[in-house]
Design goal:
The complex is a heterodimer. In chain A, about 0% of the residues lie in helices and about 45% in strands. By secondary structure, chain A is mostly beta strands. In chain A, strands 2, 4, 5, 8, 9 and 10 form a six-stranded mixed β-sheet that branches. In chain A, strands 1-3-7-6 form a four-stranded antiparallel β-sheet, with no helix packed on it. Chain A starts with a strand and ends with a strand. By secondary structure, chain B is mostly beta strands. In chain B, strands 2, 4, 5, 6, 9, 10 and 11 form a seven-stranded mixed β-sheet that branches. Chain B has a four-stranded antiparallel β-sheet with strand order 1-3-8-7, with no helix packed on it. Chain B is globular and about 45 Å long. The chains are: A mainly beta, B mainly beta. At the A-B interface, β4, β8 and β9 of A face β5, β9 and β10 of B.
């Protein structure tokens, strides 16, 4: 299966905006979904089909995509947003592709 | 409320087998595909495989790292999905999660519910 890449880590000041990106050829053909995982907890869906939020996810989370890149933006980051974030898509073989995760630190 | 509960994890020796269960409630189990993921200690998530719903032939896909050793099945009458793990290796040590899979567009797949996971430790 094809790979998708993510920056290993990013940091953001409290209340500021951070963008996490995911790159890979599969993203040209399939939408990305994003998952947040806090230490010791199961992942939680935060964005699907590029820019749709499940109920219960605050609107400071948004997504976008262009070409082979999908992005997750947190506008007005809070301390509770500190977590690992993973992007997920599909490849041409119909298999899942999962990014290596980005650790977001809120300063 | 959608709920997924994994069970069956534990300590197992290399080369042995183990079967995990994912028991679902709160939705019509047979209408959904289900996936398994895992996370080795201190590492990132890894996709293991999925099984489609019976209406989509119940076909399966697996990651290269487990293909030929792991298999996923489902019992819609009991609302349970299984992950059969054979020829286990030390590197299969991980927390295993099951997910409910959704599709809202032809090219949009996502996992809207995750279980809390079950720990599998492969060690002699």
């Amino acid at each position: 299966s094809s790979d998708v890449t993510q920056d290993p880590a990013v940091s953001v000041a409290l209340g500021q905006t951070v963008r996490i990106t995911c790159q890979g050829d599969s993203l040209r053909n399939y939408y990305a979904s994003w998952y947040r995982q806090k230490p010791g907890q199961a992942p939680v869906l935060v964005i699907y089909a590029d820019n749709n939020r499940p109920s219960g996810i605050p609107d400071r989370f948004s997504g976008s995509s262009s070409g082979n890149t999908a992005s997750l933006t947190i506008t007005g980051a809070r301390a509770e947003d500190e977590a690992d974030y993973y992007c997920n898509s599909r490849d041409s073989n119909g298999e899942d592709v999962l990014g290596p995760g980005t650790k977001v630190t809120v300063l | 409320e959608v709920k997924l509960v994994e069970s069956g994890g534990g300590l197992v020796q290399p080369g042995r087998s183990l079967r995990l269960s994912c028991t679902a409630s709160g939705f019509t189990f047979g209408d959904f595909a289900l996936s398994w993921f895992r996370q080795a200690p201190g590492k990132g998530l890894e996709w293991v495989g999925f099984i489609r719903s019976k209406i989509h032939d119940g076909t399966t896909k697996y990651a290269a790292s487990v293909k030929g050793r792991f298999s996923i099945s489902r019992d819609d009458s009991k609302s349970i999905a299984y992950l059969q793990m054979n020829s286990l290796k030390i590197e299969d040590t991980a927390v295993y999660y099951c997910t409910r899979d959704r599709r809202n567009l032809l090219t949009s797949y996502y996992k809207d519910s995750w279980g809390q996971g079950t720990l599998v430790t492969v060690s002699s």
